[in-house]
TrEMBL record:
One of its GO terms (molecular function) is oxidoreductase activity, acting on paired donors, with incorporation or reduction of molecular oxygen. It holds the Pfam family DIOX_N. SUPFAM superfamilies: Clavaminate synthase-like. InterPro entries: DIOX_N (IPR026992), IPNS-like_FE2OG_OXY (IPR044861), IPNS-like_sf (IPR027443), Iron_ascorbate_oxido_reductase (IPR050231), Oxoglu/Fe-dep_dioxygenase_dom (IPR005123). This is Gibberellin 2-beta-dioxygenase. Residues 178-277 form the Fe2OG dioxygenase domain. It comes from Heracleum sosnowskyi. It comes from the Eukaryota. Keywords: Iron, Metal-binding, Oxidoreductase.
Length: 328
């Protein structure tokens, strides 16, 4: 049964107390600021109700927190420490000693002029061996492997909740040897005079799996309200991405999110696995989710076509709009 924890904070005092509140976290199924503030669902993967709760969360939020996973704390903390050690190097050293095959960048988020106060490492994720070999990559692969497995588990629980057959109709896109997935480590240093760490956007893939340290900043959009997400380093956060919205014919909603810096900002480090399909995969609603004579608002497209379109738009653009049968 879903339990709810409500922390009573008056609306007038939210701004002054949000930084303090977000540095704490609770191992409960819901977290909220007050009775009128939307709650963030938390799914316990060890419970039999996980599949139905995941579907409910994806329909209402497009976002949920996962606890009781099987990811080793040692793996998480070791990679986090290694990442912090890299980002705290002098700038010249970071630019010179990027751990391949990662690419390193700072401030610039996309190709269309979007900026933020962050540095990041980014690499593609292959299900086959990588030609590069270094300590950082080895640690990253040790982390990524169980994360991908958990992502597939969650997609199969989604399929169970939606009564889809076969059960791996979604997860096989991530487990495919040609899966076009990404792994990214975002580092948000203290930035004087900056408020925006990472601007509002949706993720284009199928699902994203995020884990951060205890620094706050992440917000998700729900019914026109930006909801701060209390950090929990022991948990993971799951985003419904654009492709999953299409595959469920809009039943699941791709969640818009951003990172906001506060006056009492501490260094935030987040690690995100973006689970993507093969470039040639066709993205369209799953037929068994369509009601009789129901029409899809989306044109069928390949993942390759979608990534090309995404690369040519700004961060906050509605990336699915060019693929609507009747564009707005």
């Amino acid at each position: 049964m879903l339990h709810i924890l409500l922390t009573e904070i008056s609306v007038s005092s939210i701004r002054s107390q949000v930084s303090l509140f977000l540095t704490t976290f609770q191992a409960t199924t819901m977290v909220a600021f007050n009775d009128n503030f939307p709650c963030i669902p938390v799914v316990d993967l060890s419970q039999n109700s996980a599949s139905s709760l995941i579907v409910e969360a994806c329909e209402s939020f497009g976002f949920f927190q996962v606890k009781n996973h099987d990811i080793s704390t040692d793996i998480i903390t070791t990679l986090e420490a290694k990442a912090f050690a890299f980002f705290e190097l002098p700038q010249s050293a970071k630019e010179k000693d990027v751990p391949r095959p990662f690419c390193y960048n700072t401030n610039s988020i996309g190709r269309r002029g979007d900026t933020g106060c962050l540095e990041y490492l980014l690499t593609s994720v292959s299900n086959s061996d990588n030609i590069h070999s270094n300590d950082f990559l080895t640690l990253a692969n040790i982390y990524i492997s169980p994360i991908r497995k958990m992502a597939c588990q969650i997609l199969e629980l989604m399929a169970d909740g939606l009564k889809l057959e076969p059960r791996n109709v979604l997860s096989r896109l991530l487990s495919d040897d040609k899966s076009d997935s990404r792994f990214r480590i975002n580092y948000y240093p203290p930035c004087a005079g900056m408020e925006l760490g990472f601007g509002e956007h949706t993720d284009p893939q199928i699902i994203s799996v995020l884990r951060s340290n205890a620094a706050s900043g992440l917000q998700i959009l729900k019914d026109g309200i930006w909801i701060p997400v209390p950090p929990d380093p022991s948990s993971f956060y799951i985003n419904v991405d654009d492709c999953l919205q299409v595959m469920t014919n809009g039943r699941f909603k791709s969640v818009k999110h951003k990172v906001i810096l506060s006056e009492n900002w501490k260094q935030r480090l987040s690690m995100i696995y973006f689970g993507g399909p093969p470039l040639s995969a066709k993205i369209a609603p799953i037929s068994s989710l369509m009601k009789d004579e129901e029409e899809s608002p989306y044109k069928e497209f390949t993942w390759s076509e979608f990534t090309t379109s995404v690369a040519n738009t700004r961060l906050d653009f509605d990336r699915l709009s060019p693929f609507l049968k009747s564009p707005n």
